[in-house]
Write a structure and sequence with these properties.
The structure is a single chain. This protein has two domains: about 190 residues, Quinone Oxidoreductase, Chain A, domain 1, CATH 3.90.180.10; about 130 residues, Rossmann fold (3-Layer(aba) Sandwich). By secondary structure, it is α/β, with parallel strands linked by helices. The chain contains eleven helices and 18 strands.
């Protein structure tokens, strides 16, 4: 079938992207779903920093690639062997499918699926297939989703059913921002009743962590960001106070659970400094692989600290996305507050500029 999608043509073109236009809106051919796959009509797709990291070269991927990994839609066709989901079902797409069989899939979300990771790196679906083509040549999949398009074929294990009563703009953001930020709190930090929580880095993932921490109704929720222009937004999402890293460290503020969501060495160092003795520093940000940070091993040892990575919120999407959907339905997780703007597909390059310049939290592409 013919679809319209946003294809990254080349990694590393200079900003502003509205001028260099690394992403083109293209007509493509989409193959029907094969064994274990489904066809999804996309309703909404969030623009995430992980998309920007591919575009700017921080996390290079092969091109041409149809971008987008935070999406939601309606199942329109089933491939052979799919009998556990119905046509017409609303789904949120998760960017790291879990095969359910490898050793990593038996770590309760701690480690990413090994075949899923390999497929994502290669630009294929789980199982190795490519279903996108343009002018007779292949177009690669982004993280098994390629949701910046009118339709997508994905592996069934990349799709999680959600209630139709959850709006598409909300359902899309559950698949990455909330799954990652919320999971860094719930699954990795595991705060106890009364625990204060500090979140360092108030982008989409960090603010999702703030929303989730506030929804859990534990102790105080404190936001930390170098840009204090985010203060009002963070407080609106449930933070009790917001400080710059320097202010928080100078005031001696500490918490037993600290989530780093900025993906920058300075933010990681601040998160470690703000962790109370005996506490846990959860690092969920993804900096450039060459980035390095400086911390004191003696402090880690002497204060019995724990530092742990949290990739995709240590999530099992099929388990966790329904939890966040129910929290939204119960009024405990106002995800709509994350959404800076609803845009159209052909505004994608300008939207990447807004994200790169810190002018947006979550922009969501909506499809008619």
């Amino acid at each position: 079938m013919e679809i319209i999608g946003a294809v990254l043509e080349e990694v590393g073109r200079p900003a502003p992207y509205a001028r260099s236009r690394p992403i083109t809106i293209s007509e493509l051919e989409l193959d029907p779903p094969q064994q274990g796959e489904i066809l999804v009509r996309i309703l909404a797709a969030g623009i995430c920093h992980s998309d920007l990291s591919v575009l700017n070269g921080d996390r290079p991927r092969p091109t041409p690639m149809l971008l987008g990994h935070e999406s939601t839609g309606i199942v329109e066709a089933l491939g052979p062997g799919v009998d556990d989901i119905d046509i017409g079902q609303h789904v949120t797409l998760a960017f790291l499918p879990r095969c359910g069989e490898c050793a990593s899939c038996h770590t309760d979300g701690k480690l990413p699926c090994e075949p899923g990771t390999a497929a994502n790196t290669a630009g294929t679906l789980l199982g190795g297939g490519i279903r996108l083509h343009r002018n007779g040549g292949p177009v690669l999949h982004h993280l098994g989703v390629s949701g910046f398009a009118t339709y997508a074929v994905v592996n069934r294990k990349s799709a999680v059913p959600v209630p139709a009563s959850v709006p598409p703009t909300v359902a899309a953001v559950l698949g990455c921002a909330v799954l990652t930020g919320g999971g860094a709190v719930r699954n990795t930090g595991k705060p106890k009743p009364g625990d204060d929580i500090i979140v360092v880095g108030l982008g989409g993932v960090g603010l999702s962590a703030v929303l989730t921490a506030a929804g859990l109704n534990l102790g105080s929720v404190i936001g930390v960001d170098a840009n204090l222009d985010k203060t009002d937004v963070a407080i609106d999402m449930g933070a009790d106070a917001v400080y710059s890293p320097e202010q928080a460290i100078r005031k001696g503020i500490k918490a037993p659970v600290v989530v780093e969501a900025a993906g920058h060495p300075a933010a990681f160092e601040a998160a470690v400094a703000l962790t109370a003795p005996g506490g846990i520093t959860v690092t969920a940000g993804l900096p450039n692989p060459a980035a390095r940070a400086s911390i004191s091993p003696a402090q880690i040892t002497g204060e019995a600290r724990t530092i742990v990575g949290s990739y995709l919120g240590s999530a099992v999407p099929a388990r966790d996305i329904p939890v966040y959907a129910q929290m939204w339905l119960d009024g405990k997780l106002p995800v709509e507050k994350l959404i800076s703007a609803e845009i159209k597909l052909d505004e994608i390059n300008a939207a990447m500029d807004a994200l790169a310049e810190g002018r947006a939290v979550r922009q969501v592409i909506t499809f008619d």
